[in-house]
Design brief:
By secondary structure, this protein is an alpha+beta fold. The protein has 6 helices and 8 strands.
């Protein structure tokens, strides 16, 4: 019995001392230098995108809809007279909602609310302020302006410039890391990018303030920034 116990104890000790073999991850999939790079260029906007609409309320759906339609016709007519092409005016939202009043816990229908919103592309950017004033004058108190954005219709050239700057930035960062790490930098193994033109936006409150401060709305488009970010994985030679 004592001999058997000694044999079993020896076996357990042998098992406890057995080394575990760990398979390392694929070194090729883990090797390399990963960096981010960024490139930025500026350009003048050549298009203004204006979002505006009309609101009308009446006792019946038909009355509210007719009132909103007449006001919107006046607004879009003023825009077309100002040089905006028909294809650059697009309806983006239309809504008819009932309006209720609560009296002593009971719901009472008091009318209907109609909202019609369009997005307008202004290609002659210098006319933006004049067109806003014309639209507001035509629509009167039922007009609302939601948003104004300046952008570049075709930012391809600027994006290519920013993309090149981003790759230069990424390589400079990778070269610094390679030198600090005592290795030779290889060729890019993968490249991905994000970003683009960043539109200049004004909200409705800013535009309303501009209209209150001056007889004519003055809009300054400024410069638009195009930013491209890249993520690059370089090999190590």
């Amino acid at each position: 019995m004592f001999a058997l116990a000694a044999v079993l104890a020896g076996g357990l000790v042998a098992l406890a001392c057995t080394e575990t073999t760990v398979v390392p991850p694929d070194s090729e999939s883990q090797s390399g230098i990963s960096v981010n790079g960024s490139g930025s260029v500026f350009g003048e906007p050549d298009v203004a995108v204006l979002t505006l609409g009309v609101e009308a309320q009446a006792e019946s759906v038909g009355e509210a809809r007719n009132e909103a339609a007449e006001t919107m016709d006046a607004v879009t007519g003023a825009l077309r007279e100002g040089g905006v092409a028909e294809e650059d005016i697009q309806t983006t939202y239309f809504s008819v909602q009932p309006r209720y009043n609560f009296v002593e816990g009971e719901q009472e229908l008091i009318g209907f609310f109609v909202e019609n919103i369009v997005t307008v592309k202004i290609r002659n950017i210098d006319d933006t302020g004049t067109l806003i004033d014309s639209a507001v004058d035509a629509g009167g108190d039922e007009t609302r302006i939601d948003n104004l954005t300046f952008t570049i219709d075709d930012p391809t050239v600027l994006e290519d410039e920013a993309r090149q700057l981003a790759m230069d930035d990424a390589r400079a960062r990778a070269e610094t890391l390679a030198e600090a790490g005592g290795v030779d930098l290889g060729e890019p193994q993968s490249i991905s990018e994000s970003g683009g033109a960043r539109p200049i936006a004004f909200d409705g409150a800013e535009l309303a303030a501009a209209q209150d401060e001056a007889p004519a709305t003055t809009i300054e488009s400024g410069e638009l920034e195009v930013v491209i970010d890249v993520q690059v994985q370089y090999a190590i030679d």
